[in-house]
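The record is kept unedited without comment:

——
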Amino acid sequence: MSYLNTKPLLFGLEHGQLCNEVELLLDYPANLVKLLKSNQIDIGLIPVGALPSLGEYQIISDYCIGTEGEVASVAVFSEVPMEEIDTVLLDYQSRTSVMLCKLLFEKHWKKKVQFINTQDESYIENIRGNVAGLVIGDRALKIRDAFTFKYDLGSGWKDMTGLPFVFAVWVAKKQINGKFIALFNKDLGLGLSKINSIIKHNDESNYPMDMYFRKNISYLLSENMMDSMKLFLSFLKNS
């Protein structure tokens, strides 16, 4: 994924033992799903909400993009409080965030709104009055100070379930050699060990990068993360 939160993982793949064995393609989440389905990529950092659409797949890494609570880069932005929102524009880049947003409005915030899909960046300019917008990724960090109200989806999920949330996991649809998987995980771990350097060289956002990489984003696919992922997928299955 071409987002700030993947920088440590990408660093490991670019500088680790597999650096000459892999070709990296950067894209936003929804497109990565299409590339994996069409076998244009062998491994993808895939949004959890898209997993049921893949058919057979395997999660090949101990690392993920997750959060223990507030994620900062996935939120509903609004000029008015929740009770006054009547429409939500949905970010076109991530199916998982859209699904989580709809789930939280229904089961946690208990608020009926009209959801509108978007196609490009221009929708952010239409977040005004009673029209709120789900914005994800680096853009969400950059516009945080522009809106009075921010409803963080990671915090919403934690408040509703008591669990962390997993946004994306490393997935393959074909059998991957065990030796490769071991090196792959080792390289990802290498990137995470370089967090200090990555923070230093990624200060283009007005949001504090030390907090973002160390507090907002969680990279280890723990047992709690797996439990959360299963719960989220069960919600989607029953919706």
